[in-house]
Amino acid sequence: MKTTFLVLFLCVTSCIDAQTVIFADPELKDDILFYQPELDVNNDGEIQVDEAQSATHLSLSANYYSSVIGIEAFTHITSLFLHVLSLTELDLSSFQNIKDLNLRTSVATIDVSMLPTLENFTIFASSTSNVITGYMPNLKTIDFLQAPIVSLDLTGAENLETAFLDSYLFNDLQIGYKPHLKYLYVWSTSLTNLDLSQCTALIGAEINLGNASHDVHVNLKNGDTDFAEDYMDFVYITDGNPLYHCYICIDEGEEVTFTENSFAPWIFLSPYCTFEPGGSHNTITGSLYLNESGSCEDATELLGYSSITINGNSEVGTVFSNSNVYKFYPGAGTYTLTPQVNTSLFEVNPATASVSFLDNNDNTSTQNFCLTPIGTHPDVEIALIPLQLPQPGFNAVYKIVYTNKGNQTLSGNIIFTYDDALLDYVSATSVESSANIGEIIWSYSDLQFYESREILLTLNVNSPMETPPVNINDVLNLTAVANPIDGDMTPGNNTFALKQTVVGSYDPNDITCLQGSLVNPDKIGDYLHYNINFENTGTAPATFIVVKDIIDAAKYDIASLQLINVSHNMEARVTGNKAEFIFNNINLAAGGKGNVLFKIKTLGTLSVNSEVTQQADIYFDYNWPVLTNEANTVFGVLNTRDFVVDQSVKIYPNPANAVINIQTDSAINSMQLYDIQGRLLQAISGNGNKAIVDVSGRAKGLYFLKITTEKGTKVEKVMVE
């Protein structure tokens, strides 16, 4: 009987001991026993497990604990405030119900990856350098102040709303998809990249770069084009080192608003830094294939420039690519894709394709197209592109581009003619078949469907001291012909004539209408060719270059735009009246050059003396865009036929540098000033038999002044000095 009582006593004692929380540090135990509200409910001087589990909050602030082993028993707490600088180890895995966590410790690594209920997380003035995170769906607020954390991955906290991240050592900060993040503060002198492109609800952001000793890239291209306009007062890029740059990627259209915020001069803004939309977006991609064997399954990738048009809910436009991979980035909805192919030459399978997306959650769809030749249609097209304008005594560089636009493999030759008295042939990148006076011929063979080839050609221009001399404003005539012409489907594009005015100097970033500034009115509704040259005039390679051209839809048929030639791999997008030629990863060296050549039809509704204009913005990396000249072309004819000459017209002085005086025997009706290419520059109404034309703002050179009186008309050559 005594033995039975003894066994029972030992069992009860063991069970009681098993329910008691063991604290490794007696001072921690004492603080817990005197904790308010009271935790030792039965006043036995111990904390039982059920007493620990009844607690919902725990706040400990002391610098003398050697260990906090024992608090893991408080498994039901939703709030833990732990400021113990003497602490070097901490296990938080038991707190599966915790919502608020506030730490100030000397623990090097804090692991919160197993706390899915955590909503608010603070680290204050700690020596913590590493925070292990994971899937944290309930985290709303994170506040790190004066914590030397090196890297932080917040991609698993997709419902985060506010983040205050103060760590000068941050060099790797992964924010990720944050559709609810509204406020962000980051302070770091070590950060090199910060990607906020998926923070689509961002209202305010401050990025303090300290005295960073390197360039910093910030991606604010989040797809919210109202962000800058609505919340600019809450966006700051502070401090920083003026010896280095901060490059900020923004959504297109935000340039002006951001600039008005008067950022420091070492901060650069550009919408061209990533070439996909900010935020979540879908992708449609694919290629065009050429079927020569009778089976689309064995088709090969199409050479040359592929062109696809999209039409749908949130996306209407066209993409060109010389890599034969097209991409669109539409939102949710249904879209129709149509290859831009001459259907009298090729059967397209499928002729159109429909793609649908139920949402905007980064879905991808691939749609390829197969082209099969129909009948026999040879067609070769040629273009002559000026890459370096002619100057007296210097070399001029040209590019001859010939393309198989038909559906038959072609062989033939290229004939280039020039005035040998004014120009000397220097060299070409292709070996000529023959070189005669004023004529160079190259042979070609096996030019495939849609394939383009090119020849770079250098000519030397006579100087004013040679015979015959070449001077500024003289006109040079060049012609390129692609054979065979017999049997060609469109023989009109087998010949390209180029008239060039000799210049004294030129801007390397320019746009030129290759048909000139004066075109006969019978060409209204036909194609005009535009070449855009660009040159990296900086001291470092340009990683990307974008050429943007806003096309006047009232004068051009935007749907007719065709890409003829580019110098490097690129992708072109036409959206509305905006054409963008994107050279991503071009890495153009300092002094390196490139070009874009496209053709576009003018509207057939234009009239005689209508003027059309093209101008482009050229973006080199994050630098402010370089604005080209205007390429103006008038549909008209400058001539002196079919009128009576008024010989009483007198002009003086000539040459002139300020004004030209006009005097006649009869009343002056009008005066028009033209440049040497026939472009109307100025029109003035007459009053009486005397008049003055102001030429003080004109460039030096030759002009034509047309004076119309009551008795007739007279055209005078005028030299402006």
UniProtKB/TrEMBL annotation:
Keyword tags: Signal
Ranges where the Secretion system C-terminal sorting domain occurs: 651-720
Matches recorded under InterPro entries: DUF11_rpt (IPR047589), DUF7619 (IPR055353), LRR_dom_sf (IPR032675), Secre_tail (IPR026444)
Taxonomic source organism: Flavobacterium zepuense
Signal peptide interval: 1-18
DUF7619 domain sequence ranges: 507-633
This protein's name: T9SS type A sorting domain-containing protein
